[in-house]
What we know:
Helix content is 46%, strand content 17%. It is an alpha/beta fold. Helix 14 links the parallel strand 14 and strand 15. Helix 3 (109-118) packs antiparallel against helix 4 (128-146), helix 5 packs across helix 14 (365-378) and helix 10 crosses helix 11 (281-298).
Amino acid sequence: MEITGIHATPGYSGFFFDDQRAIKQGAQQDGFTYEGEPVTDGFDEIRQAGETIIVDVELADGTVVRGDCAAVQYSGAGGRDPLFQAEEYAPVVSGPVADELEGRDATAFLENAEALEELQVKGDRLHTAIRYGVSQALLSAAAEAQHTTRTDVLADALGTEPATEPVPVFGQSGDDRYNNTEKMFVKGVPVLPHALINSVEKIGENGETLLEYVEWLTERSQELGPDGYEPRFHIDVYGMVGEVFGAPYDRDEVVDYFAALEDAAAPYPIQIEGPMDVGNRGDQIAAMVELREGLADAGVDVDIVADEWCNTFEDVQAFVDAEAADLVQVKTPDLGGIHRSGQAVRYCEGTETRAYLGGTCNETETSARACAHVALATNAAQVLAKPGMGFDEGYMIVENEMRRTIARRNRQQRRTGSETDEVTADD
């Protein structure tokens, strides 16, 4: 079935764009916003409304499918593409992108997605957000044209056997790290709470505030969680361990702090995302290898998660090859085409590194549902609940999309099995 039209409509995403550099440099919150001037190119304010481009793809039979272009909350930081402004980029989608894709066979998902990856406008590749959103629509187009699930289209493109149970969902609390986390406990969320530890104030001058919070996690999870609940704690510290302790990261002071985190979380596992941010990929990998080796030598069982400077497919490869992390976040909007996220998850297979299919609170319900299919198709270690920072909505969207997809695939397989039995009986 042919792609007959591609249209772009600017809209809102599920959260906000934040100038991470300004926040790390000490910008003070003023209610929900921040005081002071932005320091990252493209920002008019330190916090400003998140934007998306709604992509409609029309098929020859009149079917219309969607994808949403989205960029991460901390755009322009850690080696990422610049701030994504929908009004600026919408003409690119309705112009050069439409010219490239209209008339193509909708069932040829991988071929179409790769053409999108390679497309250049005025000598530059498309912004990652454009590749991300348009590829979601291409995935939906292929699934509609073939009367199957997006999970099956991706599994066929990636050469995988899809998961038969929902992938563990990782809930994020935002700054409401107590109330939202209690919601997660009640719902039995398997990985939590993210916690947004992005300042010295939140981690503590010597890390003591985070330790107290982890102790609370352990105690409260046992009080509120369902019977048999065994959560995995995942804390994103946005480089704050590096800010508090500094290099080298294999010295006793640092290792002892991670040992204290392990003790505070016991009997549950804990993983720390983005322990430091040293300014470039090479040095970041070296610092994380140093920390990982120091923890291993001391017998400290805390997993380390790569985030900053692990943005593109090539970045994921570099972190995995160097054994710089126990998990790598595959930050879906930063990889461009959604198939690239699937390929990045697959790259972790057979290595010591697990794949966390992440993304950002600043996505949309459309992109979140698309990522649920990537998680199922690749059987990732965990998948982020998104969009937004309210927790409940994102968890519902991602978890329910996986459940309904598994149920649909099971129905299809039962029907196919029945048809096969009938054919055999007739023979």
